[in-house]
Amino acid sequence: MLSYFNQISRGRGAWFLLMLSALAFEACALYFQHIMNLAPCVMCIYERVAMVGVLGAGLIGMIAPSNGLVRWLGLAAWGVSTGWGLKLSIEHVGYQFPDPNDLFGATCDIFVSFPSWAPLNQWVPWMFEASGDCSKIVWEFMTLTMPQWLVIIYGAMLVVFGLVVLSQFFGKPRDRRLF
Question: Catalytic site residues?
């Protein structure tokens, strides 16, 4: 199995699929925001930025997947973005379902806080401006909230990422020569 993951990581198709899946999740987020009028909260926006990172990782990997340096840059971007997205979505679930023993309770910020060199909420406010409440549950599917689905999505992406990274060390790419 690892040789299979090694082989596909060296082609553009898998990287394109990674980029396309992240793009589909971003499109869903924008659909929820602009068509269903569900206001994104600060954590939603940060989780969205993490997904843009996964999208960027797919683009990096598509540049030259057979080149080890480019492939590892794509893998690094994928791992960091997916790990960050998983951390954020777990934290977001904690805001929606707080620990009853926590006397002070955790709350998220009211406004997004991007670095001064990349104020995404000012550059692209229709995508990166938050106006919702992190603790409010505004949507459920199969009894799971959006952040809970993101835990599953980012968790699955992290498992696949782990397999692909392992395949770089232990999976030998198949020889495509006929003779």
Answer: 41, 44, 48, 108, 134
